[in-house]
Amino acid sequence: MGSPRKKLQGLVAATLTPMTENGEINFSVIGQYVDYLVKEQGVKNVFVNGTTGEGLSLSVSERRQIAEEWVTQGRNKLDQVVIHVGALSLKESQELAQHAADIGADGIAVIAPFFFKPWNKDVLINFLREVAAAAPSLPFYYYHIPALTGVKIRAEELLDGIQDKIPTFQGLKFSDTDLLDFGQCVDQNHQRQFALLFGVDEQLLSGLVMGATGAVGSTYNYLGKKTNQLLEAFERKDFSSALSYQFCIQRFINFVIKLGFGVAQTKAIMTLVSGIPMGPPRLPLQEATREFTDSAAAKLKSLDFLPFADLKGGNLGAYS
Ligand SMILES: CC(=O)N[C@H](C=O)[C@@H](O)[C@H](O)[C@H](O)CO
Ligand SMILES: CC(=O)C(=O)O
């Protein structure tokens, strides 16, 4: 603690919370899950107990145990384990923040409270500051997801001068499609001290062009390898290949969105692709149907069998 930390970069998988058929947390597969992400997907950072992890549907005790399991199983395997500690109760959020520090997590993230909502930037910052102060040694990330929280305070406004108020502020997880707002976050991050992590997987390439320093998302659980190829192509300025990868990812996400896509469906896809049972989601989410899983499986298969070279003659011709 206290030593300068490595900046959070590259892909960060928003982890699912494995559950048994009885709706209990299935801690026994988290070790396997870590190995799968690292070895099969090339993903070495995780974001635990967020949207994808059904964090807001879990008890505080469950959240603590899950965080602990990821930190323990991830030791010497993962680069960073960031714990989402947002809650409607400031007290619970502080408890989780302190717990994350105690167990040796690498950072904490917080969403805006979404029942009684902060209606301006100052109120939101006051709330975030109180949580961050409960873990003064841990990097703090704001998790901007206005479509789910209903808190639409712009991220670029929040970022302006934030380190004076929250000294541990280290960055942002930006889960919104407003590239003006995101671009203005990047623009004011002159010293590049913050991690600006893009959170809309189907639009990652746009986020990268706009200056994202990394990405957090649900699809990196099972499309991490493919997305890493996108990142590599972008790094070497091979934008034609980067776009091919993005389109391939979009074809899949577009397909499942039309069938109805959320955390329950992500659990079904991950179970299918990784072989690790993620189980059903917790109410109010409903388990994915067999029909969904079969269609998603067929789509994944067809995309994997389509080599990127074959795309060149088609709609990507103009870019190659
Ligand atoms: C609302 C939501 O869950 N967003 C996730 C992260 O923020 C994304 O990773 C999406 O699941 C992904 O972009 C697919 O739409
Ligand atoms: C996508 C993401 O970051 C989350 O599930 O919280």
UniProtKB/TrEMBL annotation:
Would you say which domain of life the source belongs to?
Answer: Eukaryota
Q: Which GO terms describe its biological process?
A: carbohydrate metabolic process; N-acetylneuraminate catabolic process
Pfam family, any one: DHDPS
Gene Ontology molecular function: any one: N-acetylneuraminate lyase activity
Give the GO cellular component terms, alphabetically. Answer: cytoplasm
- Which keywords belong to this entry? Carbohydrate metabolism, Cytoplasm, Lyase, Schiff base
* Catalytic residues as annotated in Swiss-Prot or TrEMBL: 143, 173
Broadest EC class assigned to this enzyme: lyase
Question: Gene3D superfamilies given for it?
Answer: Aldolase class I
Biological or metabolic pathway of the protein:
Amino-sugar metabolism; N-acetylneuraminate degradation
Q: Which SMART domains match?
A: DHDPS
Q: How does it assemble?
A: Homotetramer.
What name does UniProt use for this protein?
A: N-acetylneuraminate lyase
Name the source organism.
Cavia porcellus (Guinea pig)
Q: What is the lineage of its organism?
A: Eukaryota, Metazoa, Chordata, Craniata, Vertebrata
- Gene, per the UniProt record: NPL
